């Protein structure tokens, strides 16, 4: 198994427009953006090889592929479940999702993953960002501090797993097959 790479940078608990917390992790992976994006969109069982956050994940409503408007069900390693919807889909540069239904303590949760060519040819800078708002409002100041810490830890672990996936021959083979199917 490939050695896990640590994220290049993490910003946890900062506020987006002063309104809600944002957690972010950045890593450079040794694959081109098209392949880096494809790895990020792998599904079970390949997804479970690299993504330590996901315990169960599948498309809903009869969908078989990701795309704008498609919904997914995800159960985390914590046992929490969420239905999210793709709100942007622009391979190989970015993907965005928002929570449709999820844990009671999230009033709002959304995430965006960006993939850009790195300065080293054939490599990609992956930037993953989550923003959220907790409820109830009177607990928000404390809940969002705790949420920033927990989500910051999870996003760091997740992007490190993703970096390992970008070096895993089985994950890369599955991602290449998905790219070939798109042609």
Automatic annotation (TrEMBL):
Pfam families reported for this sequence: Polyketide_cyc2
Which InterPro entries does the protein's record reference?
Polyketide_cyclase/dehydratase, START-like_dom_sf
The protein here is known as: Polyketide cyclase / dehydrase and lipid transport
Q: What is the phylogenetic placement of the source species in the record?
A: Bacteria, Bacillati, Actinomycetota, Actinomycetes, Micromonosporales
